């Protein structure tokens, strides 16, 4: 639910980082907080437990620049990843403009990733939002770990693609971030499928953090174009 | 199924009307400051004494507070709690729902009373509800919110992220 304020000439958008517990959602925000100039970001608010597990959400407002004389203000939120906190997790999705799914690449977290992705679809549809028609990117985090699953395996599991039904969207769309790969393509069976853009990351060191943020922010602004 | 949450926008005229309603309310209720926050946590307007705290963070926490209380209401069989009150030693807050999409937060101290704030808030909420219903009715007419606001700005968006 982007809010356009003509009085202060601002466009306000909400981006939510979703994913399984301990996957690196808060780490993404902490890295952005540490790297962005204090003039263009606000305070990082964390509602966390004593052991620094997210209890309700983390929140970071950042300005990403000016377009057509409007300041673009993005409100970045994380959700608590633990299964137990679904009621509060769902609240954070209210009014969301773009979603980043932070997957944990470690092989033993496969089931947690799948469960969280299913939970994301369920919670979005409870609000009447269709994830396949709104800004959505996937970040495969912890790519540096020795037990990280191959990218192809993660893609097959978490980003197999959804069927494109509208005729106007049945056209090949290359993945700008990955030469030779496509976001929308036609299978040999004739069916058209679309996948979410994806990024590899090591959030603790910052690799891929801004690529992910830029991609989702750009998709959000393009929905207003 | 709608694609996502509807975008909404408000003009300087809307802002002027909102400000007038809130200024009158603050004067009548002898309250210090009023903030309007949308349910997704965005700050819409601040009227009265400028807040000496981080208003953006305040807006986010207000929306979260209200949403959490909505769910608590449902758990006990109520559809919602349309007002909330937080009492402090010197400063207190009164929060009220406006048109199911916006939250009015009033900050007041011991120069007034909860009874007076509550009494005057009722009228302010009614006036604001009319204003916001108009704004949202206009917004849903054009799913894109401000039609054409960024139309043709694809290159500019691309450049922003280079």
Radius of gyration of chain A: 17 Å
- Cα gyration radius of chain B (Å): 17 Å
Please, what is the average pLDDT of chain A? 93
Structural class of chain B: alpha+beta
For the terminal residues of chain A, how far apart are their CA atoms? 15 Å
Topology, number of strands of chain A? 12
Helical fraction of chain B equals 40-55%
Describe the structure.
The complex is a heterodimer of chains A (225) and B (162). Chain A is of the alpha/beta class and 225 residues long. Chain A is built from five helices and twelve strands. In chain A, strands 1, 2, 3, 4, 5, 6, 7 and 12 form an eight-stranded mixed β-sheet that branches. Chain A is globular. Chain B has 162 residues and is α+β, with helices and mostly antiparallel strands. Chain B contains four helices and six strands; from the N terminus they run βαββαβββαα. Chain B has a five-stranded antiparallel β-sheet with strand order 3-2-6-5-4, with helices on both faces. The interface between A and B is large, with 49 and 44 residues.
């Amino acid at each position: 639910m982007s809010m356009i304020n003509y009085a202060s000439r601002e466009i306000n958008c909400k981006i939510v980082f979703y994913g399984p517990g301990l996957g690196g959602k808060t780490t993404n925000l902490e890295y952005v907080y540490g790297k962005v100039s204090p003039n263009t970001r606000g305070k990082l608010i964390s509602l966390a437990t004593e052991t620094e597990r997210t209890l309700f959400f983390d929140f970071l407002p950042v300005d990403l620049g000016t377009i057509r004389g409007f300041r673009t203000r993005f409100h970045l939120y994380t959700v608590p990843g633990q299964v137990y906190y679904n009621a509060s997790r769902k609240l954070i999705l209210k009014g969301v403009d773009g979603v980043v799914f932070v997957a944990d690449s470690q092989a033993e977290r496969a089931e947690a990733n799948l469960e969280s992705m299913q939970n994301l679809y369920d919670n979005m549809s409870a609000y009447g939002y269709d994830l396949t028609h709104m800004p959505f990117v996937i970040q495969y985090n912890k790519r540096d770990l020795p037990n990280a699953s191959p990218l192809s395996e993660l893609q097959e599991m978490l980003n197999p693609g959804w069927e494109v039904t509208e005729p106007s969207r049945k056209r090949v769309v290359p993945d700008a971030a990955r030469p030779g790969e496509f976001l929308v393509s036609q299978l040999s069976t004739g069916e058209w499928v679309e996948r979410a853009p994806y990024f590899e990351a090591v959030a603790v060191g910052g690799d891929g953090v801004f690529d992910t943020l830029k991609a989702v922010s750009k998709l959000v602004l393009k929905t207003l174009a | 199924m709608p694609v996502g949450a509807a975008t909404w926008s408000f003009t300087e005229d809307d802002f002027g009307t909102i400000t007038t309603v809130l200024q009158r309310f603050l004067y009548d209720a002898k309250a210090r400051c009023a903030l309007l926050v949308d349910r997704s946590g965005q700050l819409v307007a601040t009227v009265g004494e400028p807040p000496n705290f981080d208003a953006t963070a305040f807006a986010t926490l207000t929306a979260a507070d209200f949403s959490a209380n909505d769910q608590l209401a449902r758990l006990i069989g109520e559809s919602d709690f349309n007002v909330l009150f937080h009492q402090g030693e010197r400063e207190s807050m009164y929060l009220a729902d406006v048109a199911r999409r916006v939250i009015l937060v009033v900050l007041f101290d011991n120069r007034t009373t909860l009874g007076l704030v509550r009494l005057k808030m009722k009228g302010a909420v009614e006036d604001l509800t009319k204003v916001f219903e108009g704004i949202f009715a206009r917004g849903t007419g054009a799913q894109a919110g401000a039609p054409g606001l960024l139309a043709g700005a694809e290159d500019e968006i691309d450049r922003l992220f280079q």
